[in-house]
Design goal:
Pfam families: F5_F8_type_C. This is F5/8 type C domain-containing protein. With about 140 residues, the protein is mainly beta. The protein is built from no helices and 7 strands.
Length: about 140
């Protein structure tokens, strides 16, 4: 995402805190302003990435908001091949949100935290779903195949 191959229009979100925190700011190492941040009233926030076609994903990376003490401390991953039918990433079993794998994310604004997936996933669409945060569930993200 950081190299620009995924256009801004391919990033979407459940909400934004304000006009300075759009989904397009959710790229790892983005320093042109704040990161993506959901609205404080969004109970189930997500940052969605459309890869344009299905890709194998094996590593996730996250950072917090570079301009404020706001970052995601834990998140879940949802994925889809068609943008309609979604599954939670988990190490095995059924597709229940309560069984979804919870990833540990950030403890500050800028450190890059990488998650190596126990099983690779094939998807066109990925949703980072913050479930715990400090300040606000802000994110900058990257996907690696």
């Amino acid at each position: 995402m950081g190299d620009g191959r995924i256009p801004d229009g391919s990033l979407a979100s459940s909400s934004t805190k304000d006009g300075n925190t759009p989904a397009s700011n959710g790229r790892l190492r983005y320093t042109g302003g704040q990161s993506w941040c959901p609205s404080s009233g969004d109970a189930t926030p997500y940052l969605e990435i459309d890869l344009g076609s299905s890709h194998i994903i094996c590593v996730l990376a996250t950072q917090g908001n570079p301009q404020a003490d706001e970052w995601t401390t834990q998140f879940k991953i949802e994925f889809s091949v068609n943008g309609t039918s979604w599954q939670y990433f988990q190490s095995g079993g059924t597709d229940k949100a309560s069984l979804a794998l919870v990833f540990t994310a950030n403890s500050d604004r800028g450190t890059i935290v990488r998650q190596f997936l126990s099983n690779v996933l094939l998807a066109q669409y990925i949703r980072f779903r913050p479930v715990a945060w400090s300040g606000l569930g802000c994110l900058r993200t990257e996907l690696f195949g």
